[in-house]
């Protein structure tokens, strides 16, 4: 029964991939045939393709790094370099997030692989929320989008660094180092521990193993990315934004509205600053900061990936924690500036 369930998921993923390729290559035909596809659905198609095309390069980066970790990083290496004290490990994890130029599209497979290799859950959480914001590419794009008001840049980077540590600490209190990953039957069989596959396939060289794992993870992650992108495109097309703009007229409601926008729009963290800047005349500075901090930590497409690879209880706790912590921190920031 389990095998049939997995087969169904794989077939669904391949069907989504086939639809994506069909829409990608036939979009000009649809545009030329007036009335063939209603305008709102053409807009869904355009937004969907935009999200997927923007995210795919980063997914490829993420699964390739994940594969390198699988092949070259040993469990005892992770254990050796991490501080033994759980809370002391939070700061190095946030600093590590500032080094890697990885967006929220790519971070899920990397964190999943690191946790499988022995990284504590709460350290993985810090890396999960910090890396998509605290990297040089995001800092540069935020600088160029808000170069007339660098308060947004400083607030985004400062809050991301501090809140990633806070969120990691809170998740540690809730779950300690319990196993919150979903494991397949194949993974459970060889889980003592999750070694590089050099021992299982000694004849296969490391380059082949890396490519094998990268392709396997890409198709695994890709189907959830496509599903998330499609749902995000539906929301962007059919949600009445005028209502949200009306609601977002003060500090409290505008912060909530922009966080909702960030979740629904599912923008890549390297590009979201320019979208946020376009809302500058409508929303408060604090709500724009909330948009820029919350979106890379949690959006529709990475939520679907999280539910696919982590236990539901953990994902729900993670979502609530990130939402509450970011909202309260931005409110404090707005009333103290």
UniProtKB/TrEMBL annotation:
Recorded superkingdom: Bacteria
Keywords linked to the UniProt accession: Cell membrane, Membrane, Transmembrane, Transmembrane helix
Name of a matching Pfam family: ArsP_1
Membrane topology, from the record: Multi-pass membrane protein
Location of the protein in the cell: Cell membrane
InterPro entries: DUF318, UPF0718
Family per similarity comment: Belongs to the UPF0718 family.
Name assigned to this protein: Permease
Organism: Halalkalibacterium halodurans (Bacillus halodurans)
